[in-house]
Amino acid sequence: MLDDYFRQYGLIAIFAVVAFIVPTSMLLLSWLASRVGVRPRNPTPVKQETYECGMEAIGGRWSQFNFRYYMYAILFVTFDVEVVFLYPWATKFLQLELFALLEMAAFVLVLLVGWAYAWRKRDLEWR
Questions:
Q1: Rounded CA gap, 58 and 50, in Å?
Q2: Rounded to whole angstroms, how far apart are CA atoms 14 and 20?
Q3: Using DSSP, how many helices (H) and how many strands (E) does the chain show?
Q4: pTM listed for this prediction
Q5: DSSP sequence for 94-117
Q6: Structural contact between residues 50 and 57, judged by C-beta atoms closer than 8 angstroms
């Protein structure tokens, strides 16, 4: 049984090595192809422009980005992931014991602390 246990970790190690080698080798081959001349490199002003879904970009490449959009996205992802964890727990609520209830209470408490922190920092307001 212990051999099977370590074999599973061996498979994970093999996947991790492959996940590192494949993208690295693709980047290296692309770089080598550009150095040898197999891959052409002829930039034009049109190719250097920023692409925005078929519409012409407004401003330059390095325009100011409103941080509030990023903050709302991070907060949405943080509190939306809560549903992913709460739904399976809620479907099996009657079969779970007290320990599962306490763990979920701790999870919701951490989320409430994060929500209170965002509220206190006024990150939930659109200024």
A1: 9
A2: 10
A3: 4, 0
A4: 0.44
A5: GG--HHHHHHHHHHHHHHHHHHHH
A6: yes
